[in-house]
Amino acid sequence: MDKILIRDLQVEGIIGIHPEERVQKQPLLINLVLYGDTRPAGQSDNIDLAMNYQALSEAVIAHVATGAPLLVERLAEEIADLLFRLAPLAQKVRVRVEKPAALAYTRTVGVEIVRRRQDVATSP
């Protein structure tokens, strides 16, 4: 299965369980892998047959900017659902959400999930 990669998408959003985390946006680092058949786009050179990484990145940025989940696990699930809605060619997604500023003694903390289209209720 082919992969579309979106690496180190830098976004800011309200996320966290502590009151001080709910006051202002925090930096988040998001990595995405969408699995599907890229041959139609590759053979035709037609963006309409592709998983458009620019459109997907912009949608994720907008989603994070307007949401305010408590947990990175919740945000990862929301992003997976969003990707399936916007990328009908994606059969599986991998979503990693990291909080670089979460703990003083780590570079980053986060969660990574893998979801298949047939296992997600919001899939078309």
Helix content: 25-40%
Strand order of the largest sheet: 1-2-3-4
Q: Write down the domain tally.
A: 1
Number of beta-strand segments: 4
Describe how the helices and strands are arranged.
Elements: E1 2-13, E2 26-36, H1 39-44, H2 53-66, H3 72-86, E3 92-99, E4 109-116
Helix pairs in contact: 2-3
Question: Any overview of this molecule?
Answer:
The protein is α+β, with helices and mostly antiparallel strands. The chain has a single domain (2-119), classed as GTP cyclohydrolase I, C-terminal domain/NADPH-dependent 7-cyano-7-deazaguanine reductase, N-terminal domain (GTP Cyclohydrolase I, domain 2). It has helices at 39-44, 53-66, 72-86; strands at 2-13, 26-36, 92-99, 109-116. The protein has a four-stranded antiparallel β-sheet, with helices on one face. It is elongated. The two termini are 20 Å apart.
Key features of this structure:
124 residues; alpha+beta; four-stranded antiparallel beta sheet; 3 helices; 28% helix
Brief write-up:
The protein has helices spanning 39-44, 53-66, 72-86; strands at residues 2-13, 26-36, 92-99, 109-116. The protein has 124 residues and is α+β, with helices and mostly antiparallel strands.
